[in-house]
Amino acid sequence: WSLPNAERYALQYADGRQTYITESNRGEIKNGSILRLTTSPDQEAERLYSGIQSNNSDVKTDSLKKLASLSQDVTFAQEFINRNGLKQIFYIVEEGNDTGEMLAHTLKAFMELMEHDFVSWETLSAAFIKKIVSYVNMNVVDASVQQLSLSILENMVPTSRLLFELVRKEVTLDRLLTHLQVTNAQLQLKAMALLIALLLAATDAERRDMMDYLREKNIRQFIHKNIIHSSEPLGDEMAHYLYVLQSVSLNLCERRMRTSMDPYSQEQRELLQSLRQTAFESESEASASNFSTERRRSLCAKEFRKLGFMNNSNPAEDLRRAPPGLLALDNMVYFSRHTPNAYSRFVLENSSREDKHECPFARSSIQLTLILCEILHVGEPCSETAQAFYPMFFGQDHFFEELFCICIQLVNKTWKEMRATQEDFDKVLQVVREQITRTLSLKPTSLELFKTRVNALNYSEILKLRQTERLHQEETLAVPVLELRERLKPELLELIRQQRLLHLCEGTLFRKISSRRRQDKLWYCRLSPNHKVLHYGDVEEGVHSPPIESLPEKIPVADMKMLLVGKECPHTKEKSSGKQNKDVLELAFSIVYDVEEYCLNFIAPTRYEFCLWTDGLNVLLGKEMTSERTQTDLDVLLSMELKLRLLDLENISIPDTPPPIPKPPSNLNFCYDFRHAEQ
C-alpha cells in the first residue's frame, strides 16, 4: 500500500489470539482469515514499556492490561523482553503496594512472558518471590491476584531444588488447605495445582511426610465431600490433579512392595506368626505348651500349610518374591486384625475341605496383592495427562488394604463357584482380575458399592460377558450377519431333521421297565427307510442292530396321533418316589396311535437318545423339534456356516446398513422386444 515508514506497521489476526504475522508464520495463514493493519510489535513494545512507567495510574493500568493481552504473542514478547521490560514488571511488583486490578494485570503479563521460555525462572530475585508468596499468604487480597500468584509458584517449583525448598518453606500446607476450602473453583484449582507440584518435586521421604500431614488434616474427606461430590461438575484439570494425588498416595506402598521378607527380622517374623496364631490360637496354644520343640515345629508347619503357604516349614520363603514383597504380608495381617471373623472363616473353611479343593489363603493373598498393584499402577510414574482417578479412593482410609480385604473374600467365593482345584489357581486369579477391573471401570463411588457390584459379577456372569464380547469381536452380532443367520436357519433345520430321521432308521435298543421298576427285557425300535412305518420287537441281550424283518410289531406313521413326554406318559403316572423315578421322568416318552389311542412307551437309555427320538417323532408328526439338542446343534452349524461364509471378509468391517443401490442409468433401454420378432 506504499505506506511511509512501512517498518512501523504489521499485520495481525483480527480474531482469536490476534497473533502478529511474521516471515516465519505467514505460510500458516488460511483462506478467509481476517487480518488487520496495526503498529509493529517493536513500536507497540516501546509504547507499552513507556506506558507502564507512567505516573498516571489510569495510563499505567491500561498499558498493563494491553501488555497482558499482547504478551501471548511470541514476536511481541521477544521485543518487550529485549527492552528489559521484565525488570520494570519486577519493579512494579516489588515496590508497589497495590493488590487490585493493576497488580492482577502485571502478574498476568509476567506469566504470559515467562511462558515463552526466553528467561529462566531461576533468575527471579528473592524479593520478587517473597512478594508473590505474601499475596498467597494474605487474607485480604483480590482472588485473581491469589490465583495468578499460585500459578507463578506452581511454575517455579519444578524448575530447581532451591525454588522448591523456598516455596515449601514459605507457603505452608495449612495455607494451601485453606485455599482448597474456598468456594471459588478457580482458586481451589490453582491451590491444588501448587500442592501437586510440591508433591511431585519432593524427595520420597519429604513426600511421605507431606502425605502423612495431609492425612492428619483429613484432606481425603474434604476432597470426597467438597470437590468430588460438589454441585459443580469436575473439570478435566481437577480430575488430573486428583489422579496424581491418588497415584502419589498409592506409590507410598512401593517401598514395601519392592522389599523382600528378611527371615532374620524379628518384627517380620512376629507378623508372620501372628497370622498363624489368629487363625489357630484356640486349638494349638493350649496343647503346644506340653510339646517338645520338634513336635511344636511340626505343628507350626502343619498350620502354615493350612494357611496356604507353599513352603510350610519356612513360610518366609514365599514372601521373598518382590513385588509384592512385604506388602502382601501387610495386607494379610491387616485382613486378620480388622476382619478377624472373615479371616478365620476363610482359613478354617478351606483347611476342612477335601484335598486339592482348598483355596490357599497365603498363596492367593500374595498373587492378589500383585494383581492389585498392577491394576492400580503402584510404583509406576504418574501420567502427565491421565484423569482416571477412582472416586471411592477418596472415600476410604487405608484404601489399598480395605480393597484387598474385599477382593481376598472374592477369591474364595470365585474359587467355590468354579469348583477349582490347586491346578486351577491361575485360572481363578485371572477371573478375579477380570471381576475387579470390570467393576472398577464402572467407577463406584464407595468401597461398599464396589463390594456389592464385584460380588454380583460372579463366574457365570463373567462367562456370559466373555461370550458376548467374543461374538461382537467376530461381528456375529452385526445386523447383516444376523440377517444372514436367519436366512440360513431353515436350510440347517432341514439338515437336523434329516439327521434325526436317519437316526430313527438306524434304531435304538430300549429297556422295558416293569411296574416294580426292575429293568429286565430289551426291545428294539426303528423306522422303515421310507419313513412310513415304525417296527419294534423284543430282542435278546447282545443283539445290537437286528434286521427290520426280525421286528414283528408295526405302527404306521399315519396312525400316530401325538407324542407325550415326562409326566404325561402313562408309564410314569404310577406312584413312585426317589432318584430313579426322577431319572425315568427325564427319559420317558410315549407315542399315542390308532383310533383306540394305544400307547407305545419308551424309556430312552440316555438324554442324548431322548432328544434325538423326540425330535425325530415330532418331525414325523409334522411338528417343531423342541429338544435342547436341536438348539445346540443349530448353534454349532450356524456358527460354522457363518465363519465359512465370512472368511473372505476377514478384517473388513461390515456396515449395519446396506450401501444404497444407485439409480438406473438414463440409457437403460436395451430390453429386447419380442413382438417385432413374431411379426
Automatic annotation (TrEMBL):
<feature type="domain" description="ELMO">
    <location>
        <begin position="267"/>
        <end position="440"/>
    </location>
</feature>
<dbReference type="InterPro" id="IPR016024">
    <property type="entry name" value="ARM-type_fold"/>
</dbReference>
<dbReference type="GO" id="GO:0006915">
    <property type="term" value="P:apoptotic process"/>
</dbReference>
<dbReference type="InterPro" id="IPR011989">
    <property type="entry name" value="ARM-like"/>
</dbReference>
<dbReference type="InterPro" id="IPR006816">
    <property type="entry name" value="ELMO_dom"/>
</dbReference>
<dbReference type="InterPro" id="IPR001849">
    <property type="entry name" value="PH_domain"/>
</dbReference>
<dbReference type="GO" id="GO:0007015">
    <property type="term" value="P:actin filament organization"/>
</dbReference>
<dbReference type="GO" id="GO:0048870">
    <property type="term" value="P:cell motility"/>
</dbReference>
<keyword id="KW-0729">SH3-binding</keyword>
<dbReference type="GO" id="GO:0006909">
    <property type="term" value="P:phagocytosis"/>
</dbReference>
<keyword id="KW-0581">Phagocytosis</keyword>
<dbReference type="InterPro" id="IPR024574">
    <property type="entry name" value="ELMO_ARM"/>
</dbReference>
<protein>
    <submittedName>
        <fullName>Engulfment and cell motility protein 3</fullName>
    </submittedName>
</protein>
<dbReference type="GO" id="GO:0017124">
    <property type="term" value="F:SH3 domain binding"/>
</dbReference>
<dbReference type="Pfam" id="PF16457">
    <property type="entry name" value="PH_12"/>
</dbReference>
<keyword id="KW-0053">Apoptosis</keyword>
<dbReference type="InterPro" id="IPR050868">
    <property type="entry name" value="ELMO_domain-containing"/>
</dbReference>
<comment type="function">
    <text>Involved in cytoskeletal rearrangements required for phagocytosis of apoptotic cells and cell motility. Acts in association with DOCK1 and CRK. Was initially proposed to be required in complex with DOCK1 to activate Rac Rho small GTPases. May enhance the guanine nucleotide exchange factor (GEF) activity of DOCK1.</text>
</comment>
<dbReference type="InterPro" id="IPR011993">
    <property type="entry name" value="PH-like_dom_sf"/>
</dbReference>
<dbReference type="Pfam" id="PF11841">
    <property type="entry name" value="ELMO_ARM"/>
</dbReference>
<dbReference type="Pfam" id="PF04727">
    <property type="entry name" value="ELMO_CED12"/>
</dbReference>
